[in-house]
Amino acid sequence: MSQPPRPAPSKPPAGKGQLHPRNRHQGRYDFAELIRAHPPLGQFLITNPYGKPSIDFADPLAVRVFNRALLEKDYGVRGWDIPDGYLCPPVPGRADYIHQLADLLAGSHDGLIPRGPGLCALDVGVGANCIYPLLGQHEYGWRFVGADIDPAALTNAAAILAANPTLGAQIELRQQADPQQIFHGLIGADERFDLTLCNPPFHASAAEAISGSQRKWKNLGRLDPKRALPTLNFGGQSNELHCEGGETAFLARMAQQSRDYAEQVFWFSSLVSKAANVAPLEARLRELGVSDLRVLGMSQGQKQSRLLAWTFLDKKQRRAWRKARWPG
Q1: Checking CA distances to 265, which of 42, 221, 275, 294 falls within 20 to 30 Å?
Q2: Phi, psi at residue 154, to the nearest 5°?
Q3: Gap between the Cα atoms of 29 and 219, Å rounded
């Protein structure tokens, strides 16, 4: 049964390097508790240079098992896994996106976060990990449609949902047949989505993606020539990491195509990795006639990103949408 809407907590916004106030992953990880929830994590436990328990975040298998433990302990997700070489998402950062979207909805709903299966979100590029639908369904009870161009990714996501039938009952998977299309072929003529979300491919080529990972290792003090490190620190298939024109081209295409579904989506949104991409995208969206546009900062440790959200609905249309679809 869905929970009634509750006021969004009156906590200060997250500062630089801080997670959202409702994020479950504040502070240091309790590895003893994580191992109790998922004993296989114990074989990957190390002591970091500060004498604290940790895992080797340069080890893709360790990160996968760590994610599995986090999801099992904090979200009740069983049997989560991804195939070798697929993107392994940092769960705390993905949870922040979901909480930011909840606040965005609350801002249009008298400060109340609308919850329950009456709301539906479209995850563009759900991936093999299915992470956003799993988190959003658990935290707020929203329904999800997860879309991807990769049939193998969807097959794995379906296996995760089959292992979690309570969550899976509210999550539908769809394949995008045309890689050049983002919304066409996914959103039906009579469908309405309260949210769309996306973690776009950030790079223009495989070489650029590899270079980005090497910079991350160097920043973390792990670029040791004597040690064999993974090429990509969180893995990822080509379509997950890069596309022609990189993030700039992908987001420009998303902005343009969103105009065709102006009256069928309340809030469009996407992560934007590169700060320099925000201003041109804002300008293009204004040219396309958006009625509201938000840029929200997000951070996890040293990693900084931003969430861009936009709507074409005017205030009267938004009031009518809320009255028709949102509880409370």
Answers
A1: 275
A2: -65, -35
A3: 21
Structure tokens at 274: 């590169």
**Considering the entire predicted model, what is its pTM?**
0.85
For CA atoms 165, 159, 79, 121, give the dihedral sign.
negative
Tell me the C-alpha distance between 107 and 114, whole Å. Answer: 10
Radius of gyration, alpha carbons of the chain: 19
Token match 């420009």: residue?
252
Cα torsion angle, 161, 139, 22, 114, sign: positive
- Cβ contact 25:70 at 8 Å: yes
SS3 196: strand
Cβ atoms of 310 and 104 within 8 Å: the answer is no
Measured distance CA(112)–CA(110) in Å, rounded: 6
SS3 229: coil
All domains in the chain, ordered by first residue: 85-325 (3.40.50.150)
pLDDT in tens, the chain (328 residues): 444 444 444 344 555 568 999 999 999 999 999 999 999 999 999 998 889 999 998 888 999 999 999 999 999 999 999 999 898 999 999 999 999 999 999 999 999 999 999 999 999 999 999 999 999 999 999 999 999 999 999 999 999 999 999 999 999 999 999 999 999 999 999 999 999 999 998 634 455 444 544 455 455 455 445 455 555 444 544 444 444 768 999 999 999 999 999 999 999 999 998 899 999 999 999 999 999 999 998 876 666 789 999 999 999 999 999 999 998 7
Question: Please, are residues 117 and 147 in contact by the beta-carbon 8 Å criterion?
Answer: no
Under 8 Å between Cβ of 311 and 292: yes
